[in-house]
Each structure stands twice: as C-alpha cells, then as structure tokens.
Inverse folding.
C-alpha cells in the first residue's frame, strides 16, 4: 500500500524538483555571467598582449586575436633588463618568505602554546602593527635605509618587507597552531622533546597547509609591493617587477603589446602559486588573517 | 637551586620564541614612527644637514592649505566609496557562490572570482587604463548600447575620474570581503536556517534575519580592516590617475608621496603622514576593541 504514491503528491514532488532545477540553472547562469565580467579585464590583458599595437584599439574589439602575435613576449623575454626585474623580485620574495616564516612561526608558537606575563599586550601589539599606514613609514624608512647604507640594494627591500610580512605570518601561523590539540605537545614532551623539538617535529608537519598558505601570502605581499620598491631603489639593476612595469609606461608610451606581455609574465608566478594552493590560502586567510 | 634555574628557563621560554619577531617589529616600527613625528617638527629635513626646529609651524601651515583639505575630502570619498563597493559586491558574490551548487563548481567560481585581488596594483591600473581609454572597450560598449554618443575620457575628466577610481578599487578589493564573508557563512548554524524555513522564510528574509545578525561581528571587523587599509592606499591611486587630472583624485597618501619625492619637501610630507597616522590610529583603536573581545 505504502508503495503507491498519491497522484497529487507525485505531481507536487515533480514540480518541486523542476523548480529546484530551474533555480540551479539560474544560479549557474548568473555565476557564469558575473565571473566572466569580473575576469574579463584579465582576459583582455592577455588578448592585448597577443595583438600588434596597431590593433590594440581596433574596432570591433576581438577577444581572440586573428593571428597570435608573440613579438611583445619575444621582446620582453630577450631583454636583459626585464630578466633582472624578474630575478630581483624572486630574490626579494623568496628571502622575505623564508625569513618571515621562520621568525613568524617561532613567535606564533610562543603565543599559541604559552600563557605568560604580557601575552595579550604583545598580541595586540602584533595586530596593531598590521594597521600602521605604510605611507607614514615611507619617509622615515627612506631616512633609516639611507642611514644603514641599504639604499638602492635588495637588502633594504628585504628588511622593509620583512616588517610588513611578519605580523601576517605571526597571526596566520598562530591561528593554525591553535587548531592543533595540545595533547600532541604533551605526548611529545613526555617522550623527552624540548619545546623547539615539539614545534619542529610534531606541530610543523601537522601545520603544513598553514605553512604553505602563510608562505604564499607572504610571497604575494613581497612580489606585489610597489611603494617602497619605488622609493628605496634607484638604479635599473635593483628594480622589481611592479616598478619595472610602471617604468615601461613612461618609457614606451603606447607599446601595449610589450607592456601587457610583461604584465602577464610578471603576474604568472603569483597566479600559478595561488592556483596551486588556493584551497589552503582561502582557508588560511579566514582562519588567521581575519578571525585573529 | 637547579629547580629554580629550570623554572626560570621554563618561564623564559615563551619570551625566547617571541624575541626575534618582536625585536624586529619593535625596532623597525618604533624608530620610524618616532622619526616621522620628529621630521614634522623641523624644517627642510633630509635635504639639509642641519634642519631648523619649527615646532608646530608645519601643522598650522597644513591646516590653512586648501590643497590638504581637498585631498582629505577626496580621501573620505575614496575610502567610503571603496568600502561600500567592496562590501556590496563581495557579500553579493559570496551569497551567489554559497548557493546550492556542485562543490566543484563552487571551488571553480570562487577561485576565478578571487583573481582581481592577487595582481599587483600596476597591472590592475594598466588593465583599467586600457578598458577606460576613450578608444577602449567600455566606451565602445556604451556607444554600442546607445548610452553615450561621444566617447568619455573616464580617467582624464575631472568629473569622472573619482568614479572611475572607485570602479577600479571596487574590482580590486571585493575578493577580500567575499572570502571573509564566505568563511563566515560556514559558521552560521544550519538549524537557524532550518527553523526559519519551517516558518516559511524566503531567501531575503533568511538573509536579513539570520545571516546578517549572525555575521555582524565578522562584517564589522572586516569592514573596519578594509577601511583602515583603503584610507592609506597609495599604489592603486597613484598608478591609475596619479592623483589627477589636476588634483581631482589626489588623496592624502598621494599628497604625501608628491610632497616628499616630487617636491622634496620632506617636512611637509612628514606632517601629512602624521595626520594619516593619527586618523588611522583612531580606527585601529576601534578595531582592537572589537578584536580584543575575541582574543
């Protein structure tokens, strides 16, 4: 008896299912449209990088070039100046990431695993440092970096970015370490591990996703920084990618194919890194960066 | 004796872990902050070997400078407009991405929608200069749709430049709000929605009466953070419009940079920089009060 579904009920169920399908289709359509609009500026950049300058503004606009024009990429990849921008950005990005990861993880471990006199104040201090306007620091940094003899060197940039990246590393790593139960530490301590041993041998392997997302975020921060890179370096040999691109604007004026080709090449490292680990980074930003 | 020693070293352990980080942060923030205040009390710092102490003269000069007030006004417009744009687009897209769709599709759309946030400001500015160019795509679309007959100089017209800047800033900044709101959405207990559904609540009703009240602290914290960051934002403005045309989009940060590295008036620049610091300190205190409750 119970197998037999009442006709009225059946039509209702079918209607409901149909409505759900329609709703889902509408959501997909809306998402596809919105995503296309939001990603369009990036697609257009790639498109322009593959067109000769004479076609940059040709009408009607074509997203897909008629023929692929690789001259912009060829020019940019063979020019030693652009190679030096890229190398500088890699050196600074990797150095800042490594340093802030080590120093930040140590501090995060202290915050996460100990209650001590002044811990709240210290934590608030770290959070506050994220809020200090970088533009306020620019002029005194200029003075300090010149005083230290680090003007127009990559060391000056590394030191500066380390200060900006450290608070984020500490807060993000602290958020991750807090999610690991303290039982892990206790078991290891009973087995004779020192606090540093607990951190390195027990916690870090578990916190690997957190380390990866913190590293990627730090690298992104250093790779994309513009203001201090502009003010604290002077010679072409010390310029990083963002400043390099901005100088092309003045230098080449209207060579959109080259500018966009270098923009694409200069964005690739962060784009690839982010796509590879975006699952971790998105989680990490919300776990550490926002929720304190 | 040994137990006392051991106790002392154990007590000292957390400080040892914190030492390198706090020393670097302390030294590289407190010295420059002290310096910038000092610079603002002297005349001709950096360019002259022996600058003269002028007290608060730089500040009184600033207060009577219409250029400063107009940059301050632009900063307020830019900051409030940007934060509103980020919030509306970010929360809207978070709700859309969070809708009932396949998890793989959600991951795909989410990672695509985050993209504007990971590019460096120069690339963002160049992209939009291209699109907003009088001969660019946006003017072509507007003319094609019959909304304008003449192409508009979006970044070059003083009446339009701020709107264009807000468009660019919204595009660049919404992903941070979207991601924060999305992760906040996961923390809202399902039972609340189920209870609302039993009461016959629709989408908007659930959004207004369940989602928003539940996420109020998250929204408040994120908006404040966004405000603090946008208030002092330099690269996007400098690279998109350079503060122009004229001074139509000059904000306090670009004014500071112009005074220091274009006009070499480091004392005046330091004074503007200190005024930025004071205002963001006020918002930071508000943010910390919100955060301290959660620590």
């Amino acid at each position: 008896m119970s197998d037999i579904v009442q006709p009225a009920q059946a039509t209702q169920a079918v209607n409901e299912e149909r409505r759900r399908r329609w709703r889902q289709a509408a959501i997909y359509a809306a998402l596809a449209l919105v995503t296309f609009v939001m990603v369009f500026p990036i697609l257009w950049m790639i498109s322009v990088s593959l067109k000769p300058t004479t076609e940059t503004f040709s009408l009607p606009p074509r997203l897909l070039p008629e023929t692929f024009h690789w001259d912009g990429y060829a020019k940019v990849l063979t020019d030693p100046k652009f190679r030096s921008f890229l190398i500088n950005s890699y050196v600074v990005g990797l150095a800042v990431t490594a340093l802030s990861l080590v120093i930040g993880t140590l501090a995060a471990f202290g915050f996460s695993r100990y209650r001590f006199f002044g811990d709240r104040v210290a934590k608030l201090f770290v959070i506050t440092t994220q809020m200090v306007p970088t533009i306020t620091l620019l002029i005194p940094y200029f003075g300090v970096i010149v005083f230290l003899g680090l003007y127009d060197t990559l060391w000056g940039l590394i030191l500066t970015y380390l200060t900006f990246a450290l608070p984020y590393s500490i807060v993000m790593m602290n958020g991750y370490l807090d999610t690991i139960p303290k039982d892990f530490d206790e078991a290891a301590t009973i087995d004779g591990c020192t606090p540093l041993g607990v951190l390195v041998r027990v916690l870090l392997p578990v916190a690997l996703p957190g380390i990866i997302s913190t590293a990627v975020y730090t690298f992104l921060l250093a790779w994309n920084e513009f203001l201090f890179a502009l003010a604290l370096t002077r010679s072409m040999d010390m310029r990083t990618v963002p400043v390099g691109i901005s100088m092309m604007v003045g230098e080449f004026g209207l060579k959109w194919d080259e500018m966009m080709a270098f923009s694409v090449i200069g964005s690739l490292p962060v784009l690839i890194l982010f796509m590879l680990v975006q699952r971790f980074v998105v989680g990490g930003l919300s776990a550490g960066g926002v929720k304190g | 004796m040994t137990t006392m020693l051991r106790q002392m070293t154990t007590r000292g352990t957390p400080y040892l872990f914190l030492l390198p980080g706090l020393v670097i942060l302390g030294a590289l923030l407190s010295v420059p902050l002290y310096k910038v205040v000092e610079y603002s009390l002297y005349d001709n710092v950096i360019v002259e070997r022996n600058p003269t102490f002028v007290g608060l003269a730089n500040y009184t000069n600033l207060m009577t400078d219409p250029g400063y007030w107009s940059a301050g006004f632009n900063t307020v417009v830019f900051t409030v407009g940007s934060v509103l744009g980020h919030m509306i687009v970010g929360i809207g897209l978070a709700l859309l991405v969070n809708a009932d769709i396949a998890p793989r599709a959600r991951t795909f759309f989410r990672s695509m929608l985050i993209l504007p946030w990971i590019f460096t400001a120069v690339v963002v500015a160049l992209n939009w200069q291209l699109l907003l160019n009088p001969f660019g795509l946006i003017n072509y679309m507007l003319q094609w749709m019959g909304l304008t007959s003449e192409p508009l100089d979006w970044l070059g017209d003083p009446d339009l430049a701020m709107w264009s800047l807000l468009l660019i800033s919204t595009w660049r900044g919404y992903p941070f709000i979207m991601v924060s709101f999305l992760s906040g959405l996961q923390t809202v207990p399902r039972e609340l929605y189920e209870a609302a559904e039993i009461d016959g609540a629709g989408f908007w009703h659930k959004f207004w009466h369940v989602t928003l009240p539940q996420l109020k602290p998250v929204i408040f914290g994120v908006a404040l953070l966004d405000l603090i960051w946008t208030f002092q934002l330099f690269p996007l403005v400098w690279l998109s419009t350079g503060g122009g045309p004229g001074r139509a989009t000059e904000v306090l940060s670009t004014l500071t940079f112009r005074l220091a590295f274009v006009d070499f008036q480091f004392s005046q620049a330091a004074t503007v920089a200190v005024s930025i610091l004071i205002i963001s300190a006020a918002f930071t205190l508000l943010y910390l009060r919100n955060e301290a409750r959660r620590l």
